[in-house]
Automatic annotation (TrEMBL):
This is Methylated-DNA-[protein]-cysteine S-methyltransferase DNA binding domain-containing protein. InterPro entries: ATL_DNA_repair (IPR052520), MethylDNA_cys_MeTrfase_DNA-bd (IPR014048), MethylDNA_cys_MeTrfase_DNAb (IPR036217), WH-like_DNA-bd_sf (IPR036388). Keywords: DNA damage. The keyword DNA damage applies. Signal peptide: none annotated. It comes from Chromobacterium rhizoryzae. It comes from the Bacteria. Residues 4-85 form the Methylated-DNA-[protein]-cysteine S-methyltransferase DNA binding domain. It holds the Pfam family DNA_binding_1.
Length: 110
DNA sequence: ACTTTGACCCGCT
DNA sequence: AAGCGGGCCAAAG
């Protein structure tokens, strides 16, 4: 895995406008490594310190929050709402509405 | 070198 | 709705 993978993912994340969200799969794909969704997860779980990343804007496929029940999931939900993102009772996000503008699953462009 | 472990994903019960 | 199995691939033990 080239060193720039991490860098790219971070950059993409920083470029993501507030109030919008993306997914592990989409990040991996846009970083040039399709099917590497897990690696994005692993990256975010061991975040290089010194970089402040809006990790909470990263969701699982279909707009699901990862590791439901975990402490981070609760935080994520809170932070997202603070961003103005609506969550269903099940804690899911409508990607068509809040998804990454360039992503296929998003219908609401910039 | 081999095995286990993920902040994953998809399709099928 | 919820669980299972298989696929995925790098990192850590």
């Amino acid at each position: 895995m080239p060193p720039d993978f991490d860098r790219k993912v971070i950059a993409l994340l920083l470029a993501l406008p507030p109030g919008r969200v993306t997914t592990y799969g989409a990040l991996a794909e846009q970083a040039g490594y399709p099917r590497h969704s897990r690696h994005v997860g692993r990256l975010l779980s061991h975040l290089p310190d010194g970089v402040s990343v809006p990790w909470f804007r990263v969701l699982g496929a279909g707009g699901r929050i990862s590791r439901p029940g975990s402490e981070q999931a609760d935080w994520q939900r809170l932070l997202l709402e603070e961003d103005g993102v609506e969550l269903s009772a099940a804690g899911k996000v409508d990607l068509r509405r809040y998804g990454w503008p360039d992503a296929h699953f998003c219908s609401k462009k910039l």
